[in-house]
Amino acid sequence: MLNTQKKQATFKLSAIDQSVFCDFDRNSIWPASGAWGKQGWTIFDLTALTAEMLIDALTLSYCNVASKNLSEKYKA
After folding, report:
1. At 7, is the secondary structure helix, strand, or coil?
2. CB-based burial of residue 37 (10 Å sphere; 0-12 exposed, 13-18 middle, 19+ buried)?
3. What is the distance between the alpha carbons of residues 9 and 76, in angstroms, rounded to a whole number?
4. CA quadruple 29, 32, 34, 35: dihedral sign
5. pTM score, two decimals?
6. Which of 12, 28, 35, 53 is the most exposed place for a label (fewest CB within 10 A)?
7. pLDDT tens sequence across 8-19
């Protein structure tokens, strides 16, 4: 989900990926509030992060929700 007014993007990550991203920069990346965050929904401040990091988050999010045959070519 993209929020252009707040300049934020929200991605669905695994618990491990969410933890890694949040540990990198808690001021720019944080779990969504409540049950959404516990399910992996993670908010990214688009003004504070590199394009590379956002691409990594988008790719992981896609691989997390896409079917196996669609996501296989993007997995590292």
Report:
1. coil
2. middle
3. 22
4. negative
5. 0.85
6. 35
7. 999 999 999 999
User: Tokens standing for 68?
Assistant: 């196996």
The three-state DSSP-derived secondary structure of 12-58 is ECCHHHHHHHHHHCCCCEEECCHHHHHCCEEEEECCCCCHHHHHHHH
Q: Residues 75, 63: contact at Cβ < 8 Å?
A: yes
What was the pLDDT predicted at 76? 57
Q: Which amino acid is residue 60, in one-letter code?
A: L
Backbone dihedral angles phi then psi of residue 65, each to the nearest 5 degrees: -115, -20
In this structure, what are the phi and psi dihedrals at residue 48, rounded to the nearest 5 degrees? -110, 0
Reported as a single tens digit per residue, the pLDDT across 22-62 is: 999 999 999 999 999 999 999 999 999 999 999 999 999 98
